[in-house]
TrEMBL record:
Entries under Pfam families matching the protein: ECH_1
PANTHER family recorded: ENOYL-COA HYDRATASE (PTHR42964), POLYKETIDE BIOSYNTHESIS ENOYL-COA HYDRATASE PKSH-RELATED (PTHR42964:SF1)
Species: Pseudomonas violetae
This protein's name: Enoyl-CoA hydratase-related protein
InterPro entries, alphabetized: ClpP/crotonase-like_dom_sf (IPR029045), Enoyl-CoA_hydra/iso (IPR001753), Enoyl-CoA_hydra_C (IPR014748), Enoyl-CoA_Hydratase/Isomerase (IPR051683)
Family listed: Belongs to the enoyl-CoA hydratase/isomerase family.
Amino acid sequence: MTHLPVCQTLLLELHNGVLHVTLNRPESRNAMSLQMVAELRALLASVREDQAIRAMVIGGAGGHFCAGGDIKDMANARAQGPDGFRELNRAFGALLQEVQHAPQVVITVLQGAVLGGGLGLACVSDVALADHQAQFGLPETSLGVLPAQIAPFVVQRIGLTQARRLALTAARFDGTQARRIGLVHFVEHDAQALAERLDEVLAHVLCCAPGANATTKKLLLASAGQPTDALLDEAAQWFSDAVSGSEGVEGTMAFVQKRKPGWAP
């Protein structure tokens, strides 16, 4: 029997072989803090060998999935210099790799804000369910920084053509558009329909043998080619350079001050 870690930023509920994980920082639209990243990684490590846990469902509290990285952590990292930014960024990439390779079937339930790192998390789920009004986007370049750890997983999920458009325009799009480009699998129009779809998907998952599913997932991921440690390490350095540079400073200041950055018309 797996002992689940004690978490402050996550709500955990284990029921009939399904671990429900709720990102629980509703005051910040479940922005991904360093603590939340660490708690998710510890949780994944603790359940990795437990075949009794067949699926993991990740959702968010307060009507939002995840609004991206926590700006407060960025401010704290600034005090540590370039190494702080690089390590902060790379820790999130490690989380994405670990979700991607979890032996359990990972299902995301996407409502409200699904931005930046939240979109990255959706891209490493096996099955993604969205509310039609969920708001997706990669806002990083509009802040003068890069979707450094997220981009390789987005490309793998939706292809280079769509990833280029979304990353280089920071455009917002809804659940219906997310399904059209292959980011999510199912779109529903209200909370009850979303819950019913989740039950249906879980019923299918639980018909499959856990060991066979884990090995099949490994085979599918190997067939598709993977974002590598070397690429994500280099991307973390590029992120550090960008956020420490003039555009990153201007972009994050503009965000905090609720104004347009100098480069925006």
